């Protein structure tokens, strides 16, 4: 399957996913007084690199909130898979499940088939990270086709803090046609 990529400045799509509280939430909705949003798409419970990254992101969540950036992580896992994954992750930011293949297509992420039933029982997204600005436009995108490519969190957070500083007047990059 080929993917249609979101482009910098595009309006982020309306995608609703499930939370363990039984709510459906829109990936771009914000709370905690924030006006930007980070959407972290991860492969699922079967991926130890995702588990490590989700746990590492926990120590940066307050920096994100201080910069006005809300946070959610989401995968194509089922509710049961996410419940089981909670044994391996220690996070206090929202995490959701049930990303459909149509949702993955709308996000322009790479989709993989499981290598075996031991890996998982469904197609899943490869890692991606999206930053949505106050206008619901895609400000930053990092889309990978394998689990080994992830942004350096120190550099990412400091870069987002710099972008958010109004004195820097930093535009959305990558929009030249």
Automatic annotation (TrEMBL):
InterPro entries registered for this protein in UniProt: AhpC/TSA, Thioredoxin-like_sf, Thioredoxin_domain
Q: Name one Pfam family in it.
A: AhpC-TSA
Give me the segments passing through the membrane.
Answer: none
Give every Thioredoxin domain span: 6-165
Which Gene3D superfamilies has this protein been placed in? Glutaredoxin
Secretion signal span: none
Name it.
Redoxin domain-containing protein
Organism (species)? Alteromonas salexigens
């Amino acid at each position: 399957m080929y993917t249609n990529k979101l482009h910098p400045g595009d309006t982020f799509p309306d995608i609703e996913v499930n939370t363990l509280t039984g709510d459906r939430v829109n990936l771009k909705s914000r709370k905690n007084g924030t006006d930007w949003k980070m959407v972290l798409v991860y492969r699922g419970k079967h991926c130890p690199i995702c588990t490590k990254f989700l746990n590492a992101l926990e120590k940066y969540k307050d920096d994100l909130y201080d910069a006005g950036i809300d946070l959610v992580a989401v995968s194509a896992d089922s509710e049961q898979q996410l419940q089981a994954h909670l044994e391996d992750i220690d996070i206090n930011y929202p995490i959701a499940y049930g990303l459909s293949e149509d949702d993955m297509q709308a996000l322009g992420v790479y989709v993989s088939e499981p290598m075996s039933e031991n890996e998982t029982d469904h197609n899943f997204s490869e890692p991606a990270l999206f930053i949505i600005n106050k206008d619901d436009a895609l400000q930053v995108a990092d889309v990978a086709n394998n689990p080994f490519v992830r942004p350096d969190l120190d550099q990412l957070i400091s870069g987002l803090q710099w972008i958010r500083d109004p004195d820097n007047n930093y535009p959305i990059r990558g929009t030249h046609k």
